[in-house]
Every structure is written in structure tokens, then in C-alpha cells.
Amino acid sequence: MSAPPLRLGVNVDHVATLRNARGGFYPDPCRAAHEAIMAGADGITAHLREDRRHIRDEDMERLKRQILTPLNFEMAATDEMVAIATRLRPHAVCLVPEKREERTTEGGLDVRGQATALRPVIRELAETGIRVSLFVEPDDAALDAAHALGAPVVELHTGAYAEACLSGETDVIARETARIYHAAEHGLSLGLEVHAGHGLTEDNVGRIAAIPQIVELNIGHALVSAAVFVGLQDAVRAMRAAMDTGRASVPA
Ligand code: PXP
Fold it and tell me: What is d(CA 111, CA 108) in angstroms, rounded to the nearest whole number?
């Protein structure tokens, strides 16, 4: 297939992590969102966690008020978060599993096990006009379950792929890349819009960008980390270039 455009959603959570290390107001995740957009981001992502360890309620409010590009609100499927999302009405919500003790989102949603709880949440958000995506492991069962629940979008968890890249073991990298490729193909065959994210870096993004069924990548930690040295705009531009190189490798 010829590849559709690949969007970059910039996750600004860890700008807030840095701010919260000292309290106060800087660095401001809203300023980061503006800079990312100026450098070519197609959307902004922020995760309001239950413990508010990085993004806070007022950050979500300001992001919604200040940015015109699509805002992707990552959240757990809790009553509290659904109430905030239906009031704020972001362009999109990505439902993620959340554990207080985890350092970051460690795995995809247990879509089948949580189907009864997820179904009304997906319905309520969709009825508010919000595009709902489910953050899932790249496997058929999770995609089938997401489809059965009526979610229009899935985001494939690329954490295992990123770990494989860190290991440098080529057979493991090939296996994890193939797993994401297969899941993306399966998702598209079900009529789902397929996104991916977690642990993507300028060095490892190419293989994922080369999967033509994937139309959006959400990337945060690597961009904020690179920004410490080169500034956020240059970090976003370099990521965009790495994505474009990967995408260009898809046969026409
Ligand atoms: N997508 C989802 C659903 C996530 O939970 C995260 C991490 O917050 C990301 C993408 C971005 O991951 P990273 O910060 O590793 O780029």
C-alpha cells in the first residue's frame, strides 16, 4: 500500500515533570506545546494521571484553551477523568491503564478483561464528540476486543519494541517490529485507525514510521530529553525528519 501521511503527536508530560521538581511555573507545558507546534507537531498529548505527578488539571485547561491543533487527553477510564474530559471536550482521548506505583504506562489496556467497565466510558466520550482510542498491546486479541467495544482508534504500545532496540539484539528487534507490523495490518483490516507510541526515539522511530498502516505516533520523553540539549523545536524537527526518512522507505 502507499503510505498515508504520518502525524506526530508531541507529549508534553515531562516538561511538567521538570517544572514539578521545583514547584512553581516553569518550564511551562503550554509553552512547550506552542513550540512543538511551531516546529511541526500535528497534535499535543498530555496525560492527566490520578496522582497528578506531572500534568495538572490547570495544565489541561490551559492546553485546551490555548492550542488550536488537536489535543489528545490521555487518561484512565475513571469517573473522575471522564467528568473532566466531557467538560473539556478535547479532540481525542486515549484510554490507558494506570497504576500508582508504575513509573510510566507499563502495558496496554486489558481490553477483554475490562470490557464491561470500558464500554460505557467509550460510549459517553464518543457521544460528547471525542475521538476515543485505546492503548493496547500489539496483539490480535486486544485489537479484536477494541473493535468489539466500538473504539475507532487504537494506539499500539511500542514499549517492548523500544526495549528490544536498547538490547541491540537484531533478532529481538526484528520480532518486535514484526509484531507491531502484524498488529497494525490486523487493526486496519478491522477498520480501526492505528497509532503507536511509547519509548520511541530519533534512533528507533524509523522502523515504526515505515509501517504504512500507522498514521500517528505519540512521542514525549525522548523529545523532552533531547530538548535539554538542543531545544524543543530542534528536537521536534529532528524527530520529524527521522519519521519522514522511515516513511519514505515504504515502497510506493
Ligand atoms: N502513548 C501513550 C499512550 C503513553 O502512555 C505514553 C507515555 O505517557 C506515550 C505515548 C509517550 O511515551 P514516551 O514518553 O515514552 O515517548
Answer: 8
Distance CA 70, CA 34 (A): 12
Beta partners for 43?
9
Q: Kindly list the protein residues whose Cβ atom lies closer than 6 A to any atom of ligand 1.
A: 11, 13, 47, 74, 94, 96, 104-105, 135, 155, 197-200, 218-222
Q: Give the pLDDT confidence of 55-102 residue by residue, as tens digits.
A: 999 999 999 999 999 999 999 999 999 999 999 999 999 999 987 666
Backbone phi, psi, residue 75, to 5°: -165, 160
Give me the residues paired with residue 92 across strands.
Answer: 72, 131
Per the listing, cell 494506539 goes with 155
Mutate to test the pocket of ligand 1, among 55, 75, 153, 198 (most ligand atoms within 8 A of CB): 198
> Cell for 13?
508530560
> Can you say how many angstroms the Cα of residue 66 is from the centroid of all Cα atoms in its chain?
20
Q: Whose CA is nearest to atom 9 of ligand 1?
A: 198
Q: Which three cell numbers stand for residue 51?
A: 496522582
Say how many Å lie between the CA of residue 221 and the centre of ligand 1: 8
Which residue in 229, 176, 237 sits closest to 10, CA to CA? 237
Please identify every residue annotated as catalytic. 47, 74, 198
Higher pLDDT, 128 or 104: 128
Give the tens place of pLDDT for each residue, 148-204.
999 999 999 999 999 999 999 999 999 999 999 999 999 999 999 999 999 999 999
pTM for the structure as a whole:
0.96
